[in-house]
Design a protein that fits this description.
single chain, alpha/beta, 7 helices, 6 strands, 20% strand
Length: 153
């Protein structure tokens, strides 16, 4: 029995890379998984479902961008109808850059896990107690002692 036995998870961005590995790991740990990707590789999601089922796991796929509210809602509905109550959502889909590029806007993201920020942003402004502590690329921010002390430990 795995650590996630009986749980239901949705993993966005699971057609490749980190999302795919998260979905596989969750399934190996006993979770029933709804896998999701944009469908740019039409074979990726069915292949992932087949792989999960090959070791006795349970999975269904739903292609589409989670930037589309209809798809986001369908993921929750699919999870509930296929496996029961949804308990885990892992959002690995890289939609922020897509949205920023598509709309030509800057995205304001409030998140306290700096590694999440560094993985999805090309430029970061760090606020501390209402003041700008640092501004730059993730690599530049990682080298600023005040940021390390306040947020990175």
């Amino acid at each position: 029995m795995g650590a996630l036995e009986g749980q239901v998870a949705v993993v966005t961005g699971s057609s490749q890379g980190i999302g795919r590995e998260v979905a596989l790991r969750f399934a190996r740990e006993g979770a029933a998984v709804v896998v999701n990707g944009t469908g740019s590789d039409p074979d990726a999601l069915p292949a992932l479902v087949a792989r999960i089922e090959s070791f006795g796991g349970r999975a269904v796929a739903l292609a589409g961008s989670v930037a589309d509210p209809v798809v986001a809602e369908a993921l929750v509905t699919t999870a509930r109808e296929s496996f029961g109550d949804l308990g885990i959502l892992v959002n690995v889909a890289g939609i922020l850059r897509d949205l920023a590029g598509r709309w030509g806007v800057t995205v304001l993201l409030v998140e306290h896990d700096m590694e999440v920020i560094f993985s999805i942003c090309s430029r970061v402004t760090v606020l501390h107690l209402g003041k700008i502590l640092a501004d730059g690329t993730p690599d530049e921010i990682r080298r600023i002692p005040e940021v390390v002390t306040a947020y990175l430990g």
